[in-house]
Amino acid sequence: MSPILVLAEKEFRDGLRNKWVAGATLLLAALAFALTFLGSSPAGLVEAKPLAVTVVSISSLTIFLIPLIALLIGYDAIVGESERGCLLLMLTYPVSRGQIMLGKFLGHATILTVATLVGYGAAGLAAAMTGNADAESWRAFSALLGSSVLLGLAFLALAYLASVLVAERSTAAGLAVGLWLIFVIVYDLALMGLLVASKGGVGADVFPALLLLNPADAYRLFNLTAFENVRQISGMGGLAASAHFSPTILLTALLGWIVIPLATAIAVFQRREA
Amino acid sequence: MTAVSTDRAGKDYNGRTVLDAVSIAVPEGRCVALIGHNGAGKTTLMKIILGLIRPSRGRVEVLGQDPATAGVDFRAKLGFLPENVAFHDQMTGAETLRFFARLKKVDTREAAELLDRVGLARAADQKVKTYSKGMRQRLGLAQALLGRPKLLLLDEPTTGLDPVLRTEFFEIIRGLTEAGTTVILSSHILTELEARTDLAAIMRDGRLVAFGDLESLRQEAGLPVTVRARGDAVELSKKLNGAFHKTLPRNSAYIDLDCPVDRKMELLRALADCGDLCTDVDVRLPTLDDLYLHYSGRAISSGTGREDAV
After folding, report:
1. Which pick of A132, A189, B60, B204 has the fewest CB atoms within 10 Å?
2. Quick one: closest CA in B to A95, which residue?
């Protein structure tokens, strides 16, 4: 078996053992359920499909929660092993550093994916049982599941980069929290501030591009604009028309946010000494 | 064939030299002891041999390759036990060893055999966090032995092992060297290495101060043989008449005589001629401790009695 799979399996088993998988799944499921059923009650008034409402509320929640979970899972992937003294031994094994990174990443990615799909999927099933979902809502919901996983992986890759750049676990933890604050909170506030300060002077051509430079914004745009029925509820109809990003571009941006930090982390890891 | 050779290898960390001009050549199938106090550069040298760090100066060749650039195939031939080996606490001993076996592409049945060999068979299904220091050390040894390595590097392998396990440990090492494995180990406990290692590399402040087999190191150091003669110490010292450097302890039940290795028989004959004055004789060859102290530049303690040449 490839060393990547051996490492991935171990990482996933560790996740099962230390209850990361169970904890993250339950947390996501509980919140998704709450949103689904709270979202259903007012839905009749605005004639929206309940599942489409669920997509809007779950995606707003996901932007805060999934990056946090991903950063917490991933920040000590390398630096933690290094501090415990396990990494030194592993580096003498017939495994390349790239394989160590990819294997661990694959394991952590599986934990995140399982938690997202099971947690949100349960809420989707519950919504289906209430019978208020049409085919497009289902597509939107599937897109939500897929893109939530991608968002998680993007922040996992950022966590790995933090983990390989610093020498101490506590520094990596601080960096992870910093990354969350920057991408999830500060970035949007800064963009808004920029708009207000320049009185809209920042060109309409620059502003949308800036949204692609944040995985959380790419995710938000994708989920709120890709499907017509969701657009109507989210009030993004106008923005979708002005921001010229097709779902493909937004998903590519998310993929880029996975590949580039991870590739950088591997390159840094390969160059440094044990 | 030379398994490990370094040619004036050196390593700097942030402008500080931790290893300087170390040249050793270890033939295949031999066991080398790296001796030196903390910070002498033993671990740094091991890391260079393993390819974990690159030397700042000099050349290193291990199993015919440059370890810093060698790939996965090279590391498949290595076994390593780090100082203060650490494992994941939540895994059992058996799980840990199976994981390492799969990583090394070794049959997992070998993992079970090795657990038995290091005496952990009964604790195999306990979590590593319940293990004592000695048990962790044995688990570390077991993972180092996975896949019959061509080169085994053991950093302080016997810490935490009781005397029985230590003996078993050296038996395992002997079995491996007989089968052609080259072993490099470091230790503070010098006496235990003496009978079990072929070569010694004595390090001090990042430099190699002596390298060779124990016999030639002894000769080179020119350390005296100490002969303890029991009996009437005062009469004996008169009889020997200043021919040998001696130490006379206060209670005078014995006398310690230092003599160069090549005059040992001369001294023993002289003692034999003393008849009843000498009742017993102990001959103490310079030990690894003595060699270590000699080469690391410290004085050799010479007992408690007054010291004079009569």
Report:
1. A189
2. B72
